[in-house]
Amino acid sequence: MAHLTNTAPTAELQALDAAHHMHPFTHGAGLADKGVRIMTRGEGVWLTDSEGNRILDAMAGLWCVNVGYGRQELVEAAAAQMSELPFYNTFFQTSHVPAIRLAERLAQLAPDPLNHVFYASSGSEANDTNLRLVRTYWEMKGQPQRKAIISRWNAYHGSSVGSGSLGGMKGMHAQGGMPIPDIHHIDQPNWWSEGGDMTPEEFGVARARQLEQKIEELGPDTVAAFIAEPVQGAGGVIVPPETYWPEIQRIVDKYGILLIADEVICGFGRTGNWFGSQTMGLRPDVMTVAKGLSSGYQPIGGSIVSDEIASVLGGDEFNHGYTYSGHPVACAVALENLRILDEEGIVTRVREETGPYLKERFESLVEHPMVGEAKIVGLMGSIALTPDKAARAAFAADAGTVGLICRERCFANDLIMRHVGDRMIVSPPLVITKDEIDTLIERAWRSLDEAMAEVEAQGLMKPAAVA
Ligand SMILES: *Cc1c(COP(=O)(O)O)cnc(C)c1O
């Protein structure tokens, strides 16, 4: 059997990586010069790298390792399913037990009336499905002119052509001919950076009303759906003001357009409920799931849709699917993962215990001189770095310059926090303990101190001119 554990010196692996491995969302030459960090093991919230460092992973891999690393039950679920039936498709009027049982379980967990699952292998694929699904739904309802999908700037819905178009990342749109037609974007509810003189409550309503303006501008009978993450993740963990979602819900109801909640990060306990839609009080027609569905142990995603959508789509053939839709090994692992989340009370613990504890500790970071606001829902939070809190100022340096310095200091202190521009993000495994939360906050504080010293030394502690 080929063992793929670390047997070579780090430098040799780094050279091979630079020679042959192209990384996602990475400046290739820049990384090759620096040398990639190589992870070798995981246990709970801890990673070990090829140099033997023990790192607290406050990003749960990439928002996905909800039950933590090293869960043997998931290994066994995969092995058992691979022995029994490693693959069969679900195309030609066939099915298998893992796909059936997982669909049943997701229908139980998802809010009513979402009772039907279309499988994919990732969040990107699932959102591609959603794009075609909502348009096909309206075609089958005799309203083929409803093609427009409204999304938000800085939303992240994946990186395929369809899902990347649904997303609102301008840097992504600039490469490779995106967005595709009939996708429109409104502004995100980021009060700290964009709220101006408004209160958060006023700003939440104002940003939600952009949806209504966009619908009116496009023509209400041309709009198919609005898609959004209950709490924007990769866009910087933007927790919307409390007034935002009720107003959005009022608007989608008024115009009868479909609401797609992208639960790829928020789903499966991250916000203290099974789904972020429950925490934020929305009533979606479609939910996108992936990441925490299998805690990242297997690639799997899907769309969970309402009875109404399933019944309309069932009226004709939906010419869409993936070879790995409902992959039996991925479904078996996801089912076991959902069992662990449920039976070990992990979702409840996030809501009642670790979530409130992390909130208290995380919000105390706002006392740091370089931190402007600290926002958190469940176990997903962010802080805004600033040279001038009172003015809610951005840095004069290019966005992300200071964030990157801070991320590097976190890495040096064996803490993985991500930066989005000049916001720092945490989204740890849901099994994190209170002691580990204390360690996270201590390391974050130390990293902020070191980052601020470096920012000052480089003369970067300067606010941008106000536009
Ligand atoms: C990660 C992510 C996706 C894309 O999922 P992939 O599995 O990377 O394709 C979609 N939506 C949200 C909200 C995400 O965070």
TrEMBL record:
Cofactor(s) for this UniProt protein: pyridoxal 5'-phosphate
UniProt keyword annotations, A-Z: Aminotransferase, Pyridoxal phosphate, Pyruvate, Transferase
Pfam families reported for this sequence: Aminotran_3 (PF00202)
Record keyword Transferase present: yes
Catalytic activity, EC: 2.6.1.18
SUPFAM superfamilies listed in its UniProt record: PLP-dependent transferases
Keyword set includes Transferase: yes
GO molecular function: beta-alanine:pyruvate transaminase activity; pyridoxal phosphate binding
Family (UniProt): Belongs to the class-III pyridoxal-phosphate-dependent aminotransferase family.
Stated name of the protein: Omega-amino acid--pyruvate aminotransferase
